[in-house]
């Protein structure tokens, strides 16, 4: 196969995919040529002797790479850890600011003594460049500043840092008034093959005349921000005593014990020494990464000035504010669900998941739940669907992009909505069950997921299962298992076949009515006793059951909420009790070929996603792996940049391992738990659950086996 030459010089970093002929995630390379199959032949940088000299790399797909400029590639090359390169790349706003640093810009860097402020003095070229293909490694010389805003004399005047060591950038025009920098003399450093790049000095001198005007703008902006209301979810900034600004999102508002006035619990954008993981005063108010939770009086907080207009204090959208999205080229190859090991890197963060737009949250949350990590629907999607239909191709492109890049822009979803056959899908708010029916019936052209048989021996199909029951039949905080059992017995419904995917809709109607204030998820749903004409075991002795009794369901002496079926002997004994003599047990259809003493196999399904609704807004929780803590929370409209006319929504995916801790408790403890004392996201799932999505345990096991083989 003859490659065709690519004339323009192109650098890239590998963002995903298996290690392939020299390339792995985090590697930096340069495109040499392109094959007829659409793959690229690339050179690999990062050798031990001279990292800037390329060597043969191998083949890489365009969907597995992120394009870089020469300057960006040289900055990333000085970062020795591949994971730290990718972590920096996942913060495009910070990385962009680092790439544009000027002399005397104020930065905050990671140091062995903590996070320290300093002035950028030089951009250092490290290594040697023997030919045009070679790259320098670029690092920053930083001069530390003490807490009194003077250059520190206690530390070496110049220290060398990589781009990954910089956690905050404060342009020189944003330095507060009264912060005077002493003139510094940049001494020579005794380092091998190190030269200074004079471009920073030139940029700094050109930017200096605008300093006074921009400082005035900064003061005007700060004065206007004091009147902007703050609430949970607001992006804020807090200025420390040393003059350094930290940024984050308000996760909690209230009055902690022993304090007066309103305080804010803020999840910071990066680690800060002395901060917690959401604990304060021995009490948990929310959950985040260690060293990210800051608690301060609300009066110390201001709206994040990076997204606000200087004159009005309102969010604005500039052309430069648009978050860069890696280029994407759709291929005919279907992308498998995101492996458990890659999900945290690929999905967690802001501008992750599916971007919401114009009442699309019901659709965004449903698609993310169904397709991000579960393999259950992959086989269904490939069976009868006509791949020539535009809407099917559009859906496949959305799923592939979500699994390959971890982000789907709003334009792709809007294109999909226009093909759903009704104009209301483009603009109006819908319920997930309505969209699910259209998705499977008209887009995927599949048979109903469920086949239900009633007492009248009639069979009907359905795509979701709606819980119907009387509130008095259940306890105060029921489990999904109890709701399923009671609903099926009350309506005398059975599943004709074992479903591969079961979508259970709770007894609530949008945000207007819900029967139960809290519902406890069942990680495993046992539907053995809900299958038609299937062997079942006696509730008492374990032998083959021949009778079923609906009136025994709420009996407090017989595990209330559990389905009760008995063999002939136990049925007579149980109903000999005076309180049960009025019951009317019904006979079961027992398969003739099944011996009465044969153990009955259990048929279970595993929870893989939950859709929730709060004040007309849908979000989802997804279990992306077999580990108990592998839970993520997705909100397609978690934040917004700009106003309603010209702005855009910022989707966010958050890790929530605390959900795994909570659900790992025994069922008895869960039924007695106080939801109001649970962490924020756990409480949200218990209070706002709308749909529970289950997949067959057999399918789940096969999925885990395939993923394990792929990781070997």
UniProtKB/TrEMBL annotation:
It is an enzyme of class 3 (hydrolase). Residues 352-666 form the USP domain. It catalyses: Thiol-dependent hydrolysis of ester, thioester, amide, peptide and isopeptide bonds formed by the C-terminal Gly of ubiquitin (a 76-residue protein attached to proteins as an intracellular targeting signal). InterPro entries: CAP-Gly_dom_sf, CAP-Gly_domain, Papain-like_cys_pep_sf, Peptidase_C19_UCH, USP. GO terms for cellular component: centrosome; perinuclear region of cytoplasm. GO terms for molecular function: cysteine-type deubiquitinase activity; metal ion binding. It comes from the Eukaryota. Pfam families: CAP_GLY, UCH. Belongs to the peptidase C19 family. PANTHER family: 40S RIBOSOMAL PROTEIN S3A. This is ubiquitinyl hydrolase 1.
């Amino acid at each position: 196969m003859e490659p065709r030459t690519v004339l323009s010089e192109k650098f890239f970093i590998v963002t995903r995919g298996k290690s392939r002929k020299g390339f792995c995630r985090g590697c930096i390379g340069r495109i040499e040529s392109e094959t007829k199959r659409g793959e690229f032949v690339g050179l690999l940088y990062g050798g031990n002797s001279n990292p800037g000299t390329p060597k043969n790399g191998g083949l890489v797909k365009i969907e597995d790479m992120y394009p870089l400029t020469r300057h960006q590639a040289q900055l990333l090359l000085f970062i020795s850890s591949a994971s730290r390169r990718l972590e920096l790349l996942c913060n495009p706003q910070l990385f962009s600011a680092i790439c544009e640093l000027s002399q005397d810009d104020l930065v905050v860097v990671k140091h062995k003594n903590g996070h320290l402020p300093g002035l950028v003095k030089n951009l250092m070229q490290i290594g040697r460049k023997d030919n045009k293909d070679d790259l320098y490694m670029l690092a920053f010389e930083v001069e530390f500043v003490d807490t009194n805003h003077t250059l520190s004399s206690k530390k070496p005047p110049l220290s060398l840092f990589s781009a990954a060591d910089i956690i905050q950038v404060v342009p020189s025009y944003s330095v507060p008034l009264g912060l005077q920098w002493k003139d510094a003399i940049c001494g020579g450093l005794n380092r091998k093959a190190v030269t200074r790049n004079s471009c920073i000095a030139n940029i700094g001198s050109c930017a200096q005349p605008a300093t006074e005007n921009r400082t005035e703008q900064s003061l005007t902006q700060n004065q206007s921000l004091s009147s902007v209301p703050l609430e949970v979810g607001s992006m804020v900034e807090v200025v420390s005593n040393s003059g350094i600004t930290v940024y984050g999102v308000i996760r909690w508002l209230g009055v902690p014990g022993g304090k007066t006035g309103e305080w804010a619990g803020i999840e910071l954008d990066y680690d800060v020494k002395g901060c917690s993981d959401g604990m304060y005063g021995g009490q948990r108010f929310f959950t985040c990464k260690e060293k990210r939770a800051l608690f301060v009086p609300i009066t110390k907080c201001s709206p994040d000035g990076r997204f606000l207009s200087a004159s009005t204090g309102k969010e604005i959208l500039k052309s430069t504010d648009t978050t860069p999205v890696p280029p994407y080229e759709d291929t005919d190859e279907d992308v498998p669900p995101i492996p458990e090991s890659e999900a945290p890197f690929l999905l967690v963060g802001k501008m992750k998941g599916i971007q919401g737009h114009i009442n699309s949250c019901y659709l965004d949350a449903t698609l993310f739940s169904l397709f991000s990590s579960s393999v259950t629907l992959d086989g269904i999607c490939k069976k009868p669907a006509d791949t020539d239909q535009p809407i099917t191709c559009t859906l496949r492109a959305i799923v592939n992009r979500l699994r390959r890049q971890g982000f789907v822009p709003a334009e792709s979803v809007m294109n999909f909505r226009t093909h759903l056959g009704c104009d209301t899908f483009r603009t109006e708010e819908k319920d997930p069950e309505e969209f699910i029916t259209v998705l499977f019936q008209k887009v995927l052209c599949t048979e109903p997921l469920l086949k239900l048989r009633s007492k009248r021996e009639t069979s009907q199909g359905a795509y979701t299962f709606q819980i119907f029951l009387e509130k008095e039949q259940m306890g105060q905080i029921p489990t999904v298992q109890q709701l399923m059992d009671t609903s099926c017995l009350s309506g005398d419904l059975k599943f004709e076949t074992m479903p591969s995917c079961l979508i259970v809709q709770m007894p609530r109607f949008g945000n207007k009515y819900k029967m139960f204030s809290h519902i406890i998820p069942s990680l495993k749903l046992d539907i053995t006793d809900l299958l038609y004409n299937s062997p079942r075991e006696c509730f008492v002795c374990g032998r083959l059951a021949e009778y079923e009794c609906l009136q025994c369901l709420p009996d407090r002496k017989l595990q209330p909420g559990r389905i009760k079926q008995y063999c002939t002997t136990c049925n007579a004994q149980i109903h000999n009790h005076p309180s049960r003599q009025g019951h009317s047990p019904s006979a079961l259809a027992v398969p003739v070929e099944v011996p009465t003493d044969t153990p009955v196999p259990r048929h279970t399904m595993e929870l893989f996603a939950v859709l929730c609704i709060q004040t007309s807004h849908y979000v989802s929780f997804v279990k992306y792996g077999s580990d108990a803590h592998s839970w993520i929370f997705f909100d397609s409209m978690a934040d917004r940049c700009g106003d309603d006319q010209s702005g855009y929504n910022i989707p966010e995916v958050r890790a929530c391992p605390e959900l795994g801790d909570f659900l790992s408790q025994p069922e008895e403890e869960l039924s007695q738990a106080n939801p109001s004392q649970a962490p924020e996201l756990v409480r949200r799932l218990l209070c706002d659950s709308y749909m529970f999505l289950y997949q067959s345990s057999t399918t789940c096991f096969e999925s885990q086996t395939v993923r394990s083989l792929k990781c070997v």
